[in-house]
């Protein structure tokens, strides 16, 4: 459920030059992505597709121009030195926009949660287990050095998308900032499972007890809000706080080691996104 609510926003910010193509097919992609998790019944297919269509129309008409304006602000800021505090502010701004999408999608999410059958919840549970196995194979192997290098390579892939190629000296600085982040993939795996188990608990409760619609919506909203703050935050506050602050510092380092030519590259990347948002919003 939480993933559906942020799916569209994530697609927009995925770092793909084909935003326009992806967004144009967003309703189909979203439907099949959801279907992979819950396996819609024949009765559900038509109204789920209608709900997604309505949501996409609303999003295109009301959100894309705001994204264009926000990206324009980012475009202007990355041409100057960037502070970790500014990066953290961008995280807060992103969360605000996602929660706006959540509120709009909440009635549709509520419809779906109230209509899920026991076998669909079981299907979701199996999908979670499969995802967790994939996570284990990718992230829960190798030494500390192996894991840090794997994480650094992912960072560089995104950094190079935005700024182009970095020289050796720049990579050393980025690697140091990447390695400074706390690394505990076992904790993240446990956090994933907590989040999944809580969603399954909510859905099973809805299916068994048939609470009123307002109560279902409240449970889903609270679940999504908790997903942002991490389910085990109280027990691991220092880790999560350090993760956010060090990640913000790393992003600032990447922006600040960039040469003028690399910043121009990033400005052009953002302009392509801005143009796509405006074009899609005008349709």
Descriptive key words:
single chain, 283 residues
Report, as a whole number of angstroms, the end-to-end distance.
28 Å
Number of helices: 13
* Structural class by sheet pairing and helices: mainly alpha
Unreliable stretches, pLDDT < 50, 5 or more residues? 1-18
Explain this structure to me?
The chain is mainly alpha-helical and 283 residues long. The protein has one domain (2-282). The protein has helices at 2-12, 19-24, 26-38, 42-62, 64-77, 84-115, 118-139, 144-163, 168-179, 185-209, 213-229, 237-257, 260-282. The radius of gyration is 20 Å and the shape is globular. The two termini are 28 Å apart. Mean pLDDT is 89; it is low at 1-18.
Topology, element by element:
Layout: H1 2-12, H2 19-24, H3 26-38, H4 42-62, H5 64-77, H6 84-115, H7 118-139, H8 144-163, H9 168-179, H10 185-209, H11 213-229, H12 237-257, H13 260-282
Brief overview, please?
The protein is an all-alpha fold. The chain is 84% helix and 0% strand.
């Amino acid at each position: 459920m939480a993933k559906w609510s942020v799916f569209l926003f994530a697609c927009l910010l995925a770092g793909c030059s084909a935003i326009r193509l992806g967004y144009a097919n967003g309703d189909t992609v979203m439907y099949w992505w959801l279907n992979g998790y819950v396996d819609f019944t024949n009765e559900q297919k038509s109204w789920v597709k209608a709900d997604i269509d309505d949501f996409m129309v609303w999003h295109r008409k009301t959100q894309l121009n705001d994204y264009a304006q926000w990206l324009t602000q980012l475009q202007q800021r990355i041409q100057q030195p960037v502070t970790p505090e500014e990066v953290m502010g961008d995280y807060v701004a992103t969360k605000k926009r996602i929660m706006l999408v959540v509120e709009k999608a909440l009635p549709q999410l509520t419809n779906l949660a109230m209509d899920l059958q026991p076998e669909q919840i079981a299907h979701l549970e199996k999908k979670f287990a499969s995802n967790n196995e994939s996570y284990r194979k990718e992230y829960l192997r190798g030494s500390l050095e192996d894991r840090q290098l794997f994480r650094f390579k992912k960072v560089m892939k995104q950094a190079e998308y935005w700024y182009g190629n970095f020289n050796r000296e720049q990579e050393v600085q980025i690697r140091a900032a990447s390695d400074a982040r706390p690394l505990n993939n076992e904790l993240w795996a446990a956090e994933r499972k907590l989040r999944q188990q809580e969603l399954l608990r909510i859905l099973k409760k809805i299916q068994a007890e048939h609470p009123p619609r307002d109560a279902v919506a409240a449970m889903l909203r609270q679940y999504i809000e908790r997903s942002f703050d991490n389910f085990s935050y109280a027990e691991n506050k220092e880790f999560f706080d350090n993760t956010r602050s060090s990640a913000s510092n790393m992003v600032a380092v990447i922006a600040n080691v960039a040469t003028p030519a690399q910043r121009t590259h990033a400005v052009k990347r953002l302009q392509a996104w801005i143009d796509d948002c405006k074009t899609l919003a005008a349709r």
